[in-house]
Design goal:
Blueprint (H helix, E strand, L loop, with lengths): L1 H11 L2 H14 L20 H6 L1 H14 L7 E7 L5 E6 L2 H22 L3 H6 L9 H13 L4 E6 L3 H4 L2 H12 L4 H11 L2 E3 L21 E2 L10 H25 L2 E6 L2 E6 L12
Parallel strand pairs: 1-4
Antiparallel strand pairs: 1-2, 3-7, 4-5, 6-7
Helix pairs in contact: 1-5, 2-4, 2-5, 5-11, 9-10
């Protein structure tokens, strides 16, 4: 498995692939009504979109060399608190432009391998609706609507508190090694990704750091990540799904044998639907 994946990564980590990933990222960040406005955020390395694009060919060549040698390290994330619709805040991890590109290319390279688990059966393929191609929040809503029409009208609606912040590194690394191989390049990069720390966007006086003037090495308020994964990138969602896949299998293969149910999960939010209300208090989560 690891040899096969490493061969795939060699293909994906060529300079032209990295350049194409940047151009796609640039396109996605371009304002539809104002093509001159490109909303690419600066990471904690202080390198702007304009600077990165100006040196694109050289940077992609350097990225490719480091990735293929296995020496690539993710840069410290810029941690930004954003308000949640339900109240409170959640912390988004803003990656450097180079790390965004690497995340996107790595995601594409291992996507089909990860999907083999999610598509193991037709039922399993339906339950995980976030961070997957052809799946979405509207898709999850349509499934729930269909199940309600079938008579599954009683719902256990739940979410996992602080899920992304509290994921066990030990367990996640076990899953990664089991999936991609003990010493594969994919495994090494994913472990480095989840262990990469962060630096707060603002200081204790609520003043914004300008990272092109001050780098994280000079800042005292650094985040050491011993649990949880960075939020906001494509790898985060993929790893979250991998982490919860065992729970999906338990609900479908074990719990559903005791109770007639339907199950839909969107990231760390999930719904278990039943036809009889009396079964709801009996549904337990390991």
């Amino acid at each position: 498995m690891s040899n096969y994946l490493d061969d795939v990564l060699v293909e994906y980590f060529q300079p032209e692939k990295l350049k194409a990933a940047f151009e796609e990222y640039e396109k996605n960040k371009t304002d539809f009504f104002n093509p001159d406005e490109i909303k690419v955020q600066m990471g904690a390395d202080g390198i702007s979109y304009q600077t990165f694009k100006k040196e694109l060919d050289l940077r992609c060549q350097l990225l490719s060399n480091r990735l293929l040698k296995g020496t690539y390290q993710f840069y410290t994330f810029r941690e930004v608190a954003v308000p949640k619709p339900s109240g409170g805040t959640r912390c988004l991890s803003i990656a450097t432009i180079r790390d965004v590109i690497v995340q996107k290319v790595l995601y594409e390279a291992i996507y089909n391998e990860v999907e083999r688990d999610f598509q193991a059966t037709k039922i399993l393929d339906k339950v995980s609706c976030a961070y997957r191609k052809s799946k979405s929040a509207p898709y999850a809503a349509s499934l729930i609507h269909r199940y309600i029409k079938q008579g599954f009208v009683f719902a256990l609606d739940a979410d996992i508190v602080k899920f992304f912040d509290k994921i066990s590194h030990h367990r996640l690394i076990e899953i990664i090694k089991q999936k991609f191989g003990e010493d594969s390049l994919a495994t090494k990069l994913l472990i480095r990704f989840i262990r990469t720390g962060g630096v707060y966007y603002k200081n204790k006086r609520n003043q914004t750091y300008f990272f092109h003037h001050r780098k994280p090495t000079k800042l005292k308020r650094r985040i050491i990540r011993i649990e949880g994964i960075p939020q906001g990138g494509v790898l985060s969602g993929m790893l979250a799904n991998l982490y919860l896949h065992e729970f999906d299998c338990w609900v479908i293969n074990d719990l559903s044998k005791r109770y007639p149910l339907r199950y839909v999960r969107y990231a760390d939010d999930f719904v278990i639907l039943l036809k009889e209300q009396k079964n709801i208090p009996l549904v337990g989560v390991k």
